[in-house]
Each structure stands twice: as C-alpha cells, then as structure tokens.
Amino acid sequence: MFRDDQQAMALQNEDLRHEVERLRAENGALRSAIAGSVPITAPLGARGLYRNPPLALTEAERVALGANGLEHFPVWLAVLLHVLTFGIFSIVYYAGQGGRLPVVEADDPSPGKAVGLFLVPYFNLYWMFAFPTRLADRINLQLRLRGEAPMVSQGLVVASAISSVIFLVPVLWIFTVVQMQQAINRIVALGPVVPRAEPFAQQPAYAPPAAMTGVRVDLGPATETAAPAWPDESAWEADAAPRARRHDP
Questions:
Q1: Inside any domain, residue 179
Q2: pTM for this one?
Q3: Which of 24, 64, 81, 233 has a 20 to 30 A CA-CA distance from 17?
Q4: Domain hosting residue 95, numbered range
Q5: Burial of 55 per CB tally in 10 Å (0-12, 13-18, 19+)
Q6: Are 199 and 176 in contact (CB under 8 A)?
C-alpha cells in the first residue's frame, strides 16, 4: 500500500513538472510574439526613454521592452574575472549582456560592435565613455519597466572612465562591475514584465425605473369606490341630497 502511494505521488509530481514546463514554453512564446509584434526601434527611440523618468508606454510596449535574455551571474566571480583579466573579461562579457537586451535606439551597439570599437585607436578613448554609459541606461531601463529604481550610477561610470583615461587608475571599474552585475541579477530575479490589470470599471449607481404610465394596479385591500370627481365642492353637495333619496326605502 505504501509503495502504491509513493508511485502515485511520483506520477503526480511528474505530471506537475510537465505542466510547469508547458506553461513556461507558452509564456516564452507569448512574450516572443508580443515583442515581435510591437515596433521598438524608431518610434520608441524618438521618445528618449533612457533619460526620461516618466515612461509613456502602452502595456504591450512595456512588455515588449522588458523581454531580455539576461542570466544570473555571481557578483564576486564577475569582480574576480575582471581583476584577473585586467578588465578584458568585463568588456567581452558586458558587451554580450548588451546583446541580450532589446534595441530601443538606433545607436544601441551589438556585441560585436561593442567589442570591436574598443580596438580602434583613439576612438576607443571615446568608446570607454560611450559604451558603459549606454549599457547603464539600458540596464536601468529594465529596472524602471519593472517598477524598480535605477541601480547603476551614471556618475560612477563616468568617474571610472575618467580615472582610466586621464589618471590611468582603473580601480573604480570594480565598483561599476559590482553595480552592473547586481542590477542584472535583480532584473533576472524580478522575472518578465507582467501587464498591469485594467482598473475595475465602477458600476453605475442603481437608479429606480422611471414612472410607468397607464393603469395603476393597487394590490392593497379593497376599499370603497372613490367618489367621482366633480367640478367643485358645491356641485357635489347639490347632488348628495337626490342620491340619498334614491337609496332611502
């Protein structure tokens, strides 16, 4: 009997696992369909979503922009690899993370472009400012779409770039890596953007039906028939005496 119960529970758990996998696949397909059906390049890029705090987006646009392929990565390991590779790991890794984010504006770089421009002499000095600040904007946008405050400081990113280019002291990049990886892990933990429910439409207050015209049916107890309407009281009194004589025996 005990073995039968175990087998039944195992079968039930297996069915639940398959059901969860099916729902995840459907959710992924739905997100892809929404993301593919909403234009997220020129129209949204013209709104300046990265630097405008209020996001004037429809729910479909918000869900589409929130779709990404970011994955969790330990913060301590990101810092360790950054130090051991003298920053090369961070350039390649975070360029790849940028490729997992939706393209909102035309100058959002692809992973190949982001890495390649670091190899261009002299231009890479500018790119050391441009790429991290744009990546910070894109990461912070994902947090804002989920109702969270930005976690990557633009001031820290600029200070890191200045310390590397001018003072040749790239220590501040460690703190930038910590902020970026913490923000990415937070986005992964929050999950996909869920459309907000439409506000409940308040039902109109009850209004009694309009007065009906026609014959009124009185359901109360039977009473004596009302006297006919006379033009005035004197006519009624004048007619009262003849009526009394007709009813006398």
A1: yes
A2: 0.63
A3: 64
A4: 66-190
A5: middle
A6: no
